[in-house]
Amino acid sequence: MTDMLWYLLLIGAVVVERVAELVVSQRHLAWSRERGGTEFGAGHYPAMVVLHVGLLVGCVVEPLVADRPFLPALGWPMLALVVAAQVLRWWCITTLGPQWNTRVVIIPGASRVVGGPYRWIPHPNYVAVVVEGVALPLVHTAWVTALVFTALNALLLRTRIGVENDALASLR
Fold first, then answer.
1. Residue 105 neighbours by CB under 8 Å, 6+ apart
2. Where are the alpha helices (DSSP H) in 35-109?
3. Among 64, 74, 56, 41, which residue's Cα sits nearest to residue 149?
4. How far apart (Å, rounded) are the C-alpha atoms in residues 107 and 172?
5. What are the mean pLDDT values of the chain's consecutive 10-residue runs (172 residues total)?
6. Which DSSP helix (H) or strand (E) runs through 21?
7. Is there a contact between 92 and 125 (Cβ–Cβ < 8 Å)?
8. Domain range summary for the chain, segments of one domain joined by +
9. Which residues contact 116 (CB under 8 A, 6 or more apart)?
């Protein structure tokens, strides 16, 4: 198979992972709402969805349109970072359990989770997002996608982390 076909399979696998994430998120969101969960910062959520879809689209379009090569010295280390980001993401999801979803929801009386990666980093899932946003496009030298996503994601994370910090401050 060609390098591009392998890369497209990788992007397809990430899309499947995202769909699985959304299924888990919807289940957890229902669980949280059944327990009186309150959502914070819903206004930025559509922008987050568009940005993440844009990342995946850019990862496919840029290498095809701009005829970006696969550079093994760049691509293989970036692939390792993509895998590491997925491991960290799912560690976050399993650590938070049913309290995790893609929205910011606080359940009355819930305690702040301080185990797993949250022992060391206050928002480890966003570390995974940042790493993936740089590494996934660079697996096939889509540097424009990596730059644009990283810049827009930094703006979005500034809002998102502020919303999460405010929401978490409401926990006892």
1. 29, 32, 33, 37, 38, 39, 40, 99
2. 45-65, 72-96
3. 56
4. 11
5. 93 98 97 96 96 98 96 98 98 96 94 94 96 98 98 97 93 72
6. helix 3-34
7. yes
8. 3-169
9. 91, 92, 94, 95, 124
d(CA 4, CA 6): 5
Give the separation between CA 123 and CA 118, rounded to whole angstroms.
7
169 CB-contact burial (10 Å; exposed 0-12 / middle 13-18 / buried 19+): exposed
According to DSSP, the β-strands at 104-106 and 38-40 are antiparallel
> What is the Cα–Cα distance from 46 to 51, expressed in whole angstroms?
9
Which fold does the domain 3-169 belong to in CATH?
Answer: Four Helix Bundle (Hemerythrin (Met), subunit A) (1.20.120)
Distance, CA of 139 to CA of 120 (rounded, Å): 28
Task: Please give the radius of gyration of the chain, using alpha carbons only, rounded to the nearest integer.
Answer: 17
